[in-house]
């Protein structure tokens, strides 16, 4: 499950332009500031994998990173920016939906959810949309090292609340989930192992 090598392959403006070699891939999705770049850097054990210079809300591209010359990690535009207009949101959704609905080599979406805040509607909506479209997801809770979140709840309490809402709404079996911290490295090995297991199914 070790990551030995990572190379940036390309940025694509449309699902159609993504690499066509059918290697298995994992999409990394979540709100801006949820810790996407940090998670990728933590998995790769490098400070910069060319992802950290992105400005919040500015990423409009699908970025493919080839890992160990055998599978892809895909960085997607974040959602839920406070300053994003409704029109821009619609753009995001048609663009990203095109990717999700047409990408046969997609093994799973890693849906990043900030464990330091209470459940957010936009994350639940996103999970439900993916579920309705039969796209497999794994919840990756980020920032689990934070001792206290905004409303005074601990990360494990926020995660429990989120899981409860998912159980109520989700039409399939509740997806697997992993608690992580890119500060302490919590969940790193578990997530890598999980991804290697999914690739081999
Ligand atoms: P965009 O690029 O804007 O979409 O954000 P992002 O999802 O890539 O988030 P990024 O990795 O840039 O992290 C956002 C902020 O959260 C940074 O200040 C990070 O240092 C912090 N952060 C990310 N992961 C963790 C974590 O596991 N624990 C803590 N305490 N902070 C984190
Ligand atoms: Mg980022």
Automatic annotation (TrEMBL):
Keywords: GTP-binding, Magnesium, Metal-binding, Nucleotide-binding
Domain of life: Eukaryota
Domain EngB-type G: 22-201
Cofactor: Mg(2+)
Record-level Gene Ontology MF annotations: GTP binding; metal ion binding
Family: Belongs to the TRAFAC class TrmE-Era-EngA-EngB-Septin-like GTPase superfamily. EngB GTPase family.
Protein name per the record: GTP-binding protein At2g22870
Gene responsible for this protein: LOC107424998
């Amino acid at each position: 499950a070790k990551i030995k090598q990572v190379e940036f392959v390309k940025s694509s403006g449309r699902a159609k332009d993504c690499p066509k070699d059918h290697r298995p891939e994992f999409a990394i999705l979540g709100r801006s500031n949820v810790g996407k770049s940090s998670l990728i850097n933590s998995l790769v054990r490098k400070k910069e994998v060319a992802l950290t210079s992105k400005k919040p809300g500015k990423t409009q591209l699908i970025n493919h990173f080839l890992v160990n010359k055998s599978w892809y990690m895909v960085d997607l535009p974040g959602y839920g920016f406070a300053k994003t207009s409704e029109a821009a949101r619609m753009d995001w959704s048609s663009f990203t939906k095109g990717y999700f609905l047409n990408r046969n080599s997609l093994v799973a979406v890693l849906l990043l959810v900030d464990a330091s805040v209470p459940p957010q509607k936009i994350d639940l909506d996103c999970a439900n949309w993916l579920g309705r479209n039969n796209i497999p997801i794994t919840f990756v809770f980020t920032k689990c090292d934070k001792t206290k979140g905004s409303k005074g709840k601990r990360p494990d309490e926020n995660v429990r609340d989120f899981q409860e809402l998912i159980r109520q709404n989700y039409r399939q079996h509740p997806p697997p989930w992993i608690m992580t911290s890119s500060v302490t490295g919590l969940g790193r090995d578990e997530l890598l192992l999980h991804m290697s297991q999914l690739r081999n199914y």
